[in-house]
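Lab notes, practical 5.
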Amino acid sequence: MCAASCRLRRLGIDTGDERVVFLRSDSFICRSEGFDARSRVELHLGDRMLVAMLDVVHGELLASDEAGLSESAWMALQPNPGDRVEFSHPRKVESLALVRSKIYGHELDGAQMEAIISDIALRRYASVELASFIVACADGRLTEQETVGLTRAMVKAGNRLSWPRDIVMDKHCVGGLPGNRTTPIVVAIVTTLGLMMPKTSSRAITSPAGTADVMEMLAPVALDVPAMRRVVEGTGGCVIWGGNVNFSPADDVLIRIERALDIDTEGQLVASVLSKKIAAGATHVLIDIPVGPTAKVRSQDDAAALAALIERVGSHFGLHVCPVITDGRAPVGRGIGPALEARDVMAVLGRANDAPADLRWRALALAATLIQLGGLASDAWEAMNVAAATLDSGRAYRQFLAICDLQGGLRTPGVAPYQHPVIAPRDGLVSGFNNRQLGTVAKLAGAPRAPLAGLTVECRLGDHVRRGQPLFVLHAQTEGELAYALAYVARHPDIVELTDK
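Output from the prediction step:
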């Protein structure tokens, strides 16, 4: 039974995705209920309920009979200012015992995985509990059957769409390759040819930009399911943020913790990717697996093992999964960061003279794979020719504009006010890139939170460069972020590797 109530107040404090309620240290609720800082509490407002983390305030920020809500908590509960909310202790989260079992190495069955994911989707886990589940499943600790169970549980926890087509296309890149923003180009090409591709994408987890971050520079992406259907019915495809359509909602909660921990584990990666494809109604899924010494996947053997696991797990759900192992030695395109990658996308689609050739080629190769999967070409050579003709004729560009129009209108990416070249310290041959360090530099410059920030790569593998020639250019929206990025570059002089000619 709810014990006590107090007036609600919106504090305007951004706690990210974590829902936080603030009470004074001398609040009668804290005293009577024994609540301490970081306690989990239940808030009840009419028929609405919210589980939140408690932070304690000392001083006069709140009255003794007030409860302050963070922005995420306020948006979730949706009260009116001055509403009175009742507090209680949350019920015991039984599935945490299963997480502890997994920590000690025990295998979880499908029902147990479903219990955990259901509670995660309902926001019953605190951040530390979410982190413990992620870590317990990391480093190969999920078996294949657990991965199947995790995938099924994630699908069950959210919405699931179906489409009036026998073949529905989708694609995903496992990541680790800066600038590899092929999705908008691929969607434009294959939907021009009559294939259906309702693409939901994620925001950045550990990278300087996710596909949704990049697409948001060009058109609105926070569409709900009816709006998504309207775009797909009008054009055959879309490129939207998956977080607004409630596909695999537990995964969206886990992603926040994975971002903080800067980890992306294999089993959870497979479950995350496939659960969202299944929920979106896909039948045929292309998985791009870049391989390189500083990519997420480091070796051909690891890539082959991941590809096989994705195929096997997908087969449990009737998915036709086509993994493609690609070159991940160097960044793709010129831009790294939302606005800069969006400019590359538009340059390729618009057939600009300075469009990055590597991004164009990769997008065509992936589109060709989907064209062949969709039965529109008899072999890879024909599929590549069809894809190139669709792009080079301008039809894919016009299709992309139509998609943007239905998603809410085309936008033009801005330009960061602060730019600084990082120059070659000597003459040499560009022999390698540290993709992880390039990503870190772009994030220190502000990406993706500052969408105009990041960097542009000014050289390619095999290029001969002269001393003083720009290797890459930093883009920042504040002087402070530019300074952070430059300090990191100074400590890591081999982000772009140079060898003697």
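Observations recorded by the TA: Residues 54 and 286 are 43 Å apart (CA to CA). The mean pLDDT is 94.
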